Structure of Histidinol-phosphatase:
Amino acid sequence: MIKHDGHIHSYYCPHGSSDSFAQYCEQAIQKGLTGITFTEHAPLPKGFIDPTPTMDSAMDERHLTSYIEELQAIKSYYKSKLNVLIGLEIDFVEGFELETNQFLNTYGPFLDDSILSVHFLKIEDIYYCMDYSPDTFKTCSDLLGSVDHVYQLYYETLKKSVQTNLGTFKPTRIGHITLCEKFQKKYPATKSYRQDIQTILSLIHQMGYQLDYNGAGTLKPLCGLTYPPAEIAEAASEMGIPLVYGSDAHQVKGMFSGVDMLSTNQSLSSP
Ligand SMILES: [Zn+2]
Ligand SMILES: [Zn+2]
């Protein structure tokens, strides 16, 4: 039973919809949730140039203050009906750890609950948004030599994201840990990465972090899976890692994505 949706985007997202904060909140209340976290894509680290053709991966830093202020008002308005948490989805970009740490030092004090995710892979000093499109994924695969190499680099980068010290305000929830499977029906790996994932889960457990149990992949035609799939979620849960459901909705319609595919063998946590 889902009580909290810990991964929701907003109209501050340049690749999102214009649905308002209030619309998400009303939907959450109507469906019986007790809380939600807005986790807009944080501004990319200073000096990092968004490699996507549309350059719309994240919100502009100029809008951050109004994002936080608007959410503070929403939070207090819904106080008695819904626990609205203010958060961001922070990108871990290899090579920009310092900038990310500085960003978190500045804005972390205003955040209740955040997610750390890997979307960008560094290949020979150039960055690629691995999950932007099947074509971008293919480019990564061509550059690295195979689809397996993309998976491998993704899990290596993810592992670094868990281990890297990003300061006091580092997010404590790791986003969609199997995002490399977003296009798996078109670009499947030939080997299992279960062992790499297990190592990462152990690190997550050691650090006392939570896992984003993300439904968005179920809506992607080339994926059809939750991030992570049920058997990995179960393994994580057995280890004592709290699973926090995340719809990763970019519009109100996307809330409750994948709920029918979540493993029911373990309980979901609130942040
Ligand atoms: Zn997004
Ligand atoms: Zn994400």
